[in-house]
Every structure is written in C-alpha cells, then in structure tokens.
C-alpha cells in the first residue's frame, strides 16, 4: 500500500515523507520529562561527495513509531523538534525529551537524507536518546541532486507546452515489479522541462498529456471525421511501450541534458455506453490499472440521458469509476475495462448503493480485550491507479483510502456501512502484543486469505477469530567478519503457499547498530528469515526475487506461543538482485 498511497498524494498535489516499516522499534518520545532528564545533541551536515559542510540545511527530529491522534475532535500531531545548520555546517539541539527518533535533513540542491541511511532516498535508522544524554557529533551526509532536462515536441518539431513529464523507476508493489513515479516536471511554452531533486539511479522518462485529461469533456464537431489516432504517453527516446524505452542514468550532482522526446501518435479507440444509476452522474473517470499510467487518465461528461463517449483511448487495462448521490445516499461503481484495437460500444456501467457489512469478534480461549482499542478495516485488494482516482473524493471528504474502517462495540460486534462492490482484505488493528487474526468466516467460507467479495448486497455476517497465541522471534545478524551487522533489513517470509503474497504474513524490520531484531505476534506456520544489507522495499514478496537467495534463508517452524531464536548471516549488498 505504500506505493498506492504515494501516488494518491501526488494526484492530490500533496507531499508525504517516505515510510519504512519497523517491527519492535523503540518507544515514542516521552511527552513530558523532568528538566534533569532532558537531552541534547549536536553534529554536522556534510556533502556526501566532497565532505564539505552544508550551510542552511534543515533538520527535523521526529519520534519513531509516533502516530497522530484525535483529541477533542482535533488531530494532535506528534511533537517534532527542528533546527538548521550554521555557516560551518554545524547544528545543536537542546531540551529534547528522551526517546527514540528519526532524524531527517533537507537542503535545496540535495536529495533529502536521514541519519544512518545507506544512501540517498534510503530509509535511515533510529536514534535513541537516553534520559539526560548528550549525543555528540551526529553526522548526516546529503547527496547532491541530479537533474534531467530536455524538450517535448510533436511530429512537426513544434514545442508541446504544459505537458507532464514523469520520471519512473522500477519498484515493487503487491509483490510485483513495476514502474512508479519518482519525479515529474511540466513543460513551458518552449516545450522545455527540468526535473530536479533526483537521487542517483536509472530513470525512464515519459511525456504525455496532462495528468487528468479534459479533452473528453468536449465534443468533436469537425465537419470531416478525424483519424482515429491520438498522442499517447511516449517514453524516451520515442517508444510507446516501456519495454522498448531506454533508461537515463543520473549521477550524483550531475545535470543530464538533451533528453528530448517526440510525442508519438497511435491508433486509439472509442469507449461508449450508458450509466445505470438512480440520479444524474456528472462525470466518469477512465484510468489505467497500473500506477505508472497516470498520463492516460480520462474524464468524460455523462449527458442527461445517461450516455457517455470517451475518445482517444489506447489499448490496455483500465478501470471505469463514478459516483453520485440521491436522497442523501451515495451510489458508486468501479468496473474493469479491457481495451483492444476496436471500438467498445454498448457498455453498461451500473452504480449501486453501498451495503452494510456486519459481524462479531470471537477470541480463541475466551481471553478479554478492550473493544475500544480495536478497529476493523476492509481494504480493497487491488489498489491500482483506477481505484486511487476513485478514492480522491472520499479522501477530500475525510474518508479512508482504498477501503473503510470501523470501531468495535462493547459486545464485540461491528458494522461498516456503505461498502461498495469489490473484493476486500479484512484486518484488525489495535491488537495487544501476542494477538493475531486466526480466521475470518462469512457463512461457511474462510475469507481471510481469499478476500471478502461484496456484490451489490450484504455478505453473510463475519466472524473474526482472534488468537492470543502469537509467537516471538528474536535474533541477531552478523557480517562476514562475524561482527554485528548494522543497518540491515530483516524479513520474515511465509513458506506456506496459501499465505504467500498476503502482506499480513510478512514482517520486516530495519535494525540498528547492535544487529538485533525482534518479531512478535507471529501466526504459527513455516517461515524463512532473510537479512539483507540493502534491499528494495517489498521486493521480498516477489517469488522471482527470492529465488537466488533461497540458500541464504534461515528456515524455521513457528508454534503457538513459541519463542524462537535465530542467528542470521548478512546477504551483502552486491549480491542483491535489482
């Protein structure tokens, strides 16, 4: 979900800091400490290439694992401490509450960095301040930004103004390797663009229409029919298929110029049909189902009779989404649409009201829990770009991204309302240490792994069984010199085929300088433990990625209430498949 959330924030014009999952991290900073317990720290910010001190760098110290909370109807954010560097690149902070923090640093012209990070755009490590501690010479190094620039022109060589240029990098989402947005720029009146703030690496550069195309809101009244072709997203140096694209290598602090793109035309088709809904539907959105397809989003008006027509659509997999309100009730729909090389006419798109999903919680063994701390979440199983676009309105009105979350009543019953037709993963948050979701039954079916399918009517009530018998796994990671391996990533991967690919059964932890790791609330089963010096987030959910490392896994069987231990050998950075 990380990749999905980031893309949605881009669509909303917001920004979000990078996140990294940590299991068993230190406690958040104490909200109030005695004067004698307060801490201080100082250090330097340096250029990673030259070692020169950096003036005017901004530092932000944020409690690890801290979350926003509601108090009196208002959102209370965790306490954050800030400062900046002087002309010698030095900084100093005082009156800090003891606790565990993340230190983030930014400066114009540099890639944002974190304390303990292995490189630019990499997650950092926790910084723990004991009561009364004075942390000295805490150094953070920043890498100079890379820049890619060029021009976007049409087939006649004329500049294309106000078009979006995206920088894409390979990454993992849901266990699959795909391109995701790492930066963007907009062309000026000369067709020129400049994308900055780039970390070293390889980028696929693509240009196309605006992020949300409004051409479909107009009606073509040409006296003669125009060719059924349109400009499509074009990858440098001139490919319409990313497989044929050439990546651009960006070096630290380098400006890569002359990455020019000539927009290509391709055969496109028409998608036309009718909306089946109780009220007027103002707009429909047709969006690619892949997160890298943000240059091909189409919006279309629906006329008074409920008819719609979308032109200029290239072949691919899309989602059609829309919503309306009637008598205070929301009607919505999302429908997959496969586009080939011929027009798609007569499409019937139905908007249906959301339905309630009810159920109760049962605790294995009858142990007691505080229901007020529990939350039930239904999360959309497929959260591609189409679903994200459809979720924008919900987010702006205070809704949930890609699903719905509800509270648990005192009698351990719950009900989530207005759930639209889709397939959902059911999860429970707020569980005490040692607890995990053992099963989720709807009627006779266990939908914990298969997903809860909602189709226009309420499913049979859910029975969520919680077990207090989760296991613990402790251990350490050592390097080739048999010393504690600092800053490694330890991952627990399920071996059971039916659990493979289900994120709730995976655990990952970024360890500190002591090389220790700890996992808790682990469901019984067969697992493999891996310790990577450097690994792309989520790569471990891809079976193809794991294959070369099978010999490096520490396999273990986890029993209920078990306490397992493991000593792991570090998988060096240069052996990790990218």
Task: Please describe the structure with a list of short key phrases separated by commas or semicolons.
578 residues, Immunoglobulin-like, single chain, five-stranded antiparallel β-sheet, 3 helices, 47 strands, 5 domains, mainly beta, six-stranded mixed β-sheet
- Average pLDDT over all residues: 84
Structural class: mainly beta
Q: Can you give the helix content as a percent range?
A: under 10%
Distinct helical segment count = 3
Q: How many domain units?
A: 5
CATH class of the largest domain: Mainly Beta
CATH superfamily of the largest domain: Immunoglobulins
Kindly provide the radius of gyration, computed on alpha-carbon positions and rounded to a whole number of angstroms: 26 Å
- What is the annotated CATH architecture of the largest domain? Sandwich
Largest β sheet strand count, sense and barrel closure: 6 strands, mixed
Cross-sheet strand order for the largest sheet: 17-26-25-28-29-31
Strand content: over 45%
Low-pLDDT ranges: 1-31, 68-74, 210-216, 385-401
Shape from CA axes? globular
- Could you tell me the CATH topology label of the largest domain: Immunoglobulin-like
How many extended strands? 47
- From the N-terminal CA to the C-terminal CA, the straight-line distance is 20 Å
Characterization of the model:
There is one protein chain. This protein is mostly beta strands and 578 residues long. The protein has 5 domains: 127 residues, Immunoglobulin-like, CATH 2.60.40; 122 residues, Carboxypeptidase-like, regulatory domain (Immunoglobulin-like); 85 residues, Immunoglobulins (Immunoglobulin-like, Sandwich), CATH 2.60.40.10; 113 residues, Sandwich (Immunoglobulin-like); 105 residues, Immunoglobulin-like (Sandwich). The protein is built from 3 helices and 47 strands. The strands form 12 sheets. Strands 17-26-25-28-29-31 form a 6-stranded mixed beta sheet. Strands 2, 5, 7, 9 and 10 form a 5-stranded antiparallel beta sheet that branches. Strand 28 and strand 29 form a beta hairpin. The N terminus is likely disordered.
């Amino acid at each position: 979900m990380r990749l999905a959330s980031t893309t949605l924030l881009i669509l909303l014009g917001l920004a979000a800091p990078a996140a990294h999952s940590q299991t068993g991290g230190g406690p958040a900073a104490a909200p109030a400490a005695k004067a004698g317990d307060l801490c201080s720290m100082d250090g330097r910010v340096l250029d990673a290439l030259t070692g020169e001190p950096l003036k005017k760098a901004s530092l932000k110290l944020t409690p690890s694992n801290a979350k926003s909370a509601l108090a009196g109807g208002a959102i209370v954010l965790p306490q954050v401490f800030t400062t900046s560097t002087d002309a010698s690149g030095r900084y100093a902070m005082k009156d800090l509450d003891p606790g565990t923090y993340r230190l983030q640093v930014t400066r114009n012209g540099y890639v944002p960095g974190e304390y303990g990070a292995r490189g630019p755009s990499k997650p950092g490590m926790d910084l723990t301040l004991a009561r009364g501690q004075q942390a000295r010479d805490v150094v953070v190094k920043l890498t100079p930004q890379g820049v890619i620039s060029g021009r976007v022109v049409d087939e006649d060589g004329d500049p294309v103004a106000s078009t979006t240029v995206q920088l894409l990098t390979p990454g993992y989402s849901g266990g699959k390797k795909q391109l995701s947005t790492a930066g963007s720029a907009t062309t000026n009146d000369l067709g020129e663009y400049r994308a900055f703030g780039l970390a070293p690496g390889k980028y696929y550069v693509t240009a196309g229409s605006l992020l949300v195309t409004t051409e479909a809101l107009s009606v073509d009244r040409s006296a003669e029919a125009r060719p059924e072709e349109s400009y499509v997203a074009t990858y440098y140096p001139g490919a319409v298929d990313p497989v044929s694209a050439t990546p651009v290598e960006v070096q630290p602090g380098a400006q890569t110029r002359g990455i020019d793109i000539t927009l290509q035309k391709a055969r496109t088709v028409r998608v036309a049909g009718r909306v089946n809904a109780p009220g007027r539907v103002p707009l429909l959105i047709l969006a690619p189902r892949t997160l890298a397809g943000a240059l091909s989003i189409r919006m279309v008006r629906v006329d008074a009779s409920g008819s719609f027509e979308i032109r200029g659509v290239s072949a691919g997999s899309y989602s059609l989404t829309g919503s309306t309100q009637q008598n205070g009730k929301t009607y919505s729909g999302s429908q997959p649409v496969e586009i080939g090389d011929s027009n798609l006419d007569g499409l019937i798109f139905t908007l249906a009201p959301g339905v309630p999903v009810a159920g109760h919680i049962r605790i294995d063994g009858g142990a007691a829990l505080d229901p007020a701390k529990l939350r039930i979440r239904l999360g959309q199983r497929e959260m591609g770009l189409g679903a994200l676009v459809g979720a924008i309105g919900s987010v702006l009105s205070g809704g949930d991204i890609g699903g719905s979350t509800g509270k648990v009543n005192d009698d351990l019953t719950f009900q989530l309302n207005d759930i639209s037709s889709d397939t959902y993963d059911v999860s429970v948050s707020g569980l005490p240490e040692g607890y995990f979701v053992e099963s989720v039954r709807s009627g006779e079916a266990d939908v914990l792994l298969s997903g809860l399918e909602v189709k226009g009517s309420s499913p049979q009530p859910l029975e969520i069984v919680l077990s207090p018998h989760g296991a613990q796994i402790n251990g350490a990671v050592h390097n080739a010199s048999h010393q504690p391996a600092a800053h490694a990533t330890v991952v627990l991967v399920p071996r059971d085929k039916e659990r493979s690919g289900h994120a709730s059964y995976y655990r990952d932890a970024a360890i500190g300088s002591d090389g220790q790791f700890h996992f808790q609330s682990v469901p019984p089963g067969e697992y493999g433990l891996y310790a990577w010096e450097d690994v792309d987030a989520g790569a471990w959910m891809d079976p193809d990625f794991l294959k070369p490392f099978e010999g490096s896994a520490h396999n273990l069987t986890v029993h209920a209430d078990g306490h397992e231990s493991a000593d792991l050998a570090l998988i060096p950075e240069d052996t990790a498949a990218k």
